[in-house]
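Batch job 17 of 40 flagged for manual review because the log was empty.
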Amino acid sequence: MIFSQIVLVYGTYIVATASPGPSNMAIMATAMRVGRVPALALAAGVITGTLFWAVLAATGMAAVLAAYAQALFVIKIAGGFYLLFLAFRAGQSALRSTVKMVDLEAARPKLSYRALYRQGVIMHICNPKAVLGWITIMSLGLPNDAHAGTLSAIIGGCAVLAVIVFGSYAVLFSTAPMVAIYEQSKRWIEGGLCALFASAGLTLIASNK
């Protein structure tokens, strides 16, 4: 029974984490724009954010937070405006003139990995779906008669899965073929990211549920 519960939790988490969303798209774009290490820094922030909600869900604080409509409303508004900010940045990038990757390498600014990490943390903490997702995961994996080690297995296993999933996005989309695709289709990719972030942000802000 314990094994089946944990497998169900892991399967649910993989589907939710690997599905394309703002965090995955941001990691993907960062990997293609500026390389693997910056994308991994962003992914580390996203992983930290998801573990933050995991710990709160394990202690019951996430359920308390979700029960208060005003608290969840603040998270939605903050997350919505942050996504609109990311949409603005993607739109700016799409409007810039295309340059060759050789020139881009030479002109590439020094990036703050701390800022990228912070972006990942904020993006995931301000995602109300992450709160509700972890409440669901804990409900699935932690019945009243759950074994003492089940909680550690859930959080530890999901942490490993988060590293694999988000890290894979960073590694895969920083490969030469993906960078070449980005170079050829920069405007379309950045424009698509702008539309995705803007749509997600406006949906959060307009949501009353």
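Reviewer: the log was empty due to a logging misconfiguration, but the result itself is present. Confidence is low (pLDDT under 50) at residues 97-109. Unflagging and moving on to job 18.
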